[in-house]
Amino acid sequence: MGLYGTSRAERLLQRLLIPVFVLSGSVVVAGFFFPELVGSVVTGVGWLVVSLLFFGSGLTYLAVLPTAVDEAPDRFDPGALLLVRRIGLGEPARTFLSRQDPVVFGVPIAVFGLFFLSQLLVPETALGAVETLRWVVLFDLGPLFVATALVSVCFCLWLLVGPWGGIRLGGPDTEPTYTYPVYFTMVFTAGIAAGIVVWGPAEALFHYDQPPPLAGVEPRSEGAIAAALVYALFHWGFSAWSAYVVVGVPIAYYVYERGAPLRVSSILTPFLGVENLDSGWCRLVDLLAVLATIGGIATSVALVSGQFLSGIDHQWAVGVDTLGSLLFVAGLIAIVVVSAQSGVHRGIRRIADLNIVLFGLFVALLVAVGPRSFVTERSVDALGGYAVGFVPMSLALGGAWTAEWTVWNWAWWFSWAPFAGLFLAALSRGRRIRTVVFTGFVATAAATMAWVLLMGATALEVQHTGRADVLGAIEAADGSEAVAGFPVFEALALGDLLTFLFLALVLVFMVSSADTSTLVVSVLATRRERAPTTGAIVFWGAFQGAVALSVVLTGSAEALQAAAVLTGGPFALVALLALIGVIGSFRRHEGGHQSLVGKLRSAVRERTEE
Q1: How far is it, in rounded angstroms, from Cα 479 to Cα 470?
Q2: What is the pLDDT of residues 507-540, one digit of tens each?
Q3: pTM of the full structure
Q4: At what angle do helices 8-33 and 495-525 cross, to 10 degrees?
Q5: Alpha carbons 45 and 258: distance in angstroms, whole number
Q6: Ramachandran assignment for 304, one of left (phi > 0), alpha (psi -120 to 50 degrees), beta (any other)
Q7: Are the CB atoms for 174 and 430 separated by under 8 Å?
Q8: In the chain, N or C terminus with fewer CB closer than 10 Å?
């Protein structure tokens, strides 16, 4: 593959994918909106295959198209991060292995191999061990997560208004690598994955059925509606996104201002110095980041396969089985590998852009056909309740409900913080820290909360008024949140179109996170003085796929998810350590910056003097 141009294989793919997209798309669209035209021509698992061909060919085509960067090497920025060294897949194994860090590369392979071997040989013992550790994390470490989340929010707020927010990463004359819309799009879509789609209609319903004890309301009551939306906002709002920022900002500062390598372990710079960032402690941090990222993404891929298959089954009565899950995971990973190897400028950026377009279309359509007055009224109440109750909810400790929901959410967000924080750092060159925090903490949280309110309130209205028994559908699916959206859409006008866009969002959101995670893992596993190669991207994408396939085959999604959440504990501690270090660095090296309040006072004073 050429450094700046598309490869021969990619050019061949471009020619092949267009007819595949058109033909499969015609069948899928006809099946959704004009089923009488298709009849029994496509049945059973055939619908899954055709759907994957349609979505996969479209996303892959976007990824392999050339860009201005590919066509004009003189415009390429050699200082940009997350570059991929274009070496053919025929690279000798010895050469490939020589580029990898033996610890960060080898240990994850051994760990996941042992995990699945234990699932096959002693599944009950393995699950029991994971559950015991999970209990320790959720109940014994609850105060750690609660405190870290609240401290992270306070730190983000201080960076927004304080003087250190004025620091420009890379120096005062450095220009941002990406326009702001592209920057926001990639940060948002990489950090949220398909969780926002899965839990958007589901979480509020769960809280409506089993309200949080702090709310003191009866299940399925009017009061439960308000409490459900408030807590859904709490779990997906500012506290959640602050986990990424408190990891990403220190990494960005040390990379662009102190010459540290693009690694999660660079947050240890103030304690070890740039020259000592190849120590065992740093390798341990990067190793945990790789384990958390692969475990989190592989689990999400496996769980999202259930939601996509539930939608296909809802539309065409396909039936959800292991073969369908295997086909979905294999198809998704193929898309992810092509997108990740194409780099940030091509596949990753374009699919993120498409993601936002689909997101906006779905929201606009749901606003048009949904219960607008109910959503508006309940959303206003929920936002007020969220603002008033933020501190009490943030300080709540004790009890199974808080552990299983609030603490679990914070642990999950912190387990994703290494990969999402590093990606945020890599994209932030040329940005002021205030802009980074506004994007990663305010703008992303606002977009997420708007979705949670729209989807959650719509689902609650449909359930509470009896238009559909969504909770009954969830119970019939053994408590799976994956089915929550489809009865809601069926109860609304243009339900088939909503389902179609919803399935597209499930797939595209997952690809947006998985291609980014593949690139990040490749960076972390490669020796510090080298860039990841095409072979490394393909290897780690395939490895994440193998882990996801193993999850499907062994039925260990919950066990692996619990194991991935366990890494949230260490990274909550790492986040606190990062805050201590970066605050010390700011105090020593970043004097003379003006706070936001100071700037406003200066502007008022200048205007008064005029």
Answers
A1: 11
A2: 999 999 999 999 999 999 998 878 888 889 999 9
A3: 0.92
A4: 150
A5: 54
A6: alpha
A7: yes
A8: C
